[in-house]
Amino acid sequence: MNAFTSLPDLALRTHGGSVVAASDESFAEKESLIRPGRPAFQPHTFGARGQVYDGWETRRRREPGHDWALVRLGLPGVVRGIVIDTAWFTGNHPPYASVEAASVEGYPTVAELRAAEWTEIVPRSALTGDAEHPFEVADGHRRTHVRLNMFPDGGIARLRVHGEVRPDLSVYEGLGLDLAALENGGLVTGCSDDFYSSPGNVIAPGSARTQAEGWETRRRRDGGNDWLVIRLAGAGVVKLAEIDTTNLVFNAPGWVSLTGMADGREFELLPRTRLQPDTRHRFRLDGDAAATHVRVDVYPDGGLARVRLHGVLSR
């Protein structure tokens, strides 16, 4: 496991990513590249275009050139690593691939993207069939789009673009925002337990559709409690906390508390407060101290679907 895979997938469809164009998708659709979850496969499942694949697959090239797909990152940021997954593609995977990145603000058209300045972040590299190929990236620039190139054609199941979120928060100037949200630059930096699912899910965009899309810990037998720490988008004052236990019917925590942290000191944001299962709770907070991190303690264990910490940036 490469260290960068613990960072968010900036291109993931559920994070707002989109495959905006591709040179060809004759056999399997380009949108599959950024779907959440592992690719699925059922042998001898044939459609009008041949065997059905959970991935992107192009026709056999009979002319010079190579195939490509343009991906808009749902979470613009600094790319730290790429994973190119050829799961289930064996006799039809590309022998080589590369990845380029660009920084194009606003809402560019496909033509404008193709004319943009692109930087190679993964050089042309050999691929094998039915395998994950991790590539560390040392780019350092904020990126909004990536382009996956495969040489000359074939099928790729998934493209994962792991990195650090770098949003443009200037649009919130003078307004409030969710200081914890992944899309605003929040990040879960620690937790007591991630046995069933990742704590990073609690700050993901949108609502959790199932309990698997939240954070759930194992059952505690030691008398302690579980917790996670969220690094906020920036130093700010939290005014409203949303603690969501949606989908967690028999495994929600009994109580929750929130503690702000900044410059080595801690201060109470929300005292230990009772929770209900399968419920979206909203708590107004009265303090005016700015926090850079917030610790969420759940008692004694269980799961949360989402945590939203609405407030204002202080600097």
From TrEMBL:
Pathway: Nitrogen metabolism; (S)-allantoin degradation; (S)-ureidoglycolate from allantoate (aminidohydrolase route): step 1/1. InterPro entries: Allantoicase, Allantoicase_dom, Galactose-bd-like_sf. This is Probable allantoicase. Keywords: Hydrolase, Purine metabolism. Belongs to the allantoicase family. Residues 16-165, 185-312 form the Allantoicase domain. Pfam families: Allantoicase (PF03561). GO terms for molecular function: allantoicase activity. It catalyses: allantoate + H2O = (S)-ureidoglycolate + urea. Coiled coil: none annotated. It comes from Planomonospora sphaerica. One of its GO terms (biological process) is purine nucleobase metabolic process.
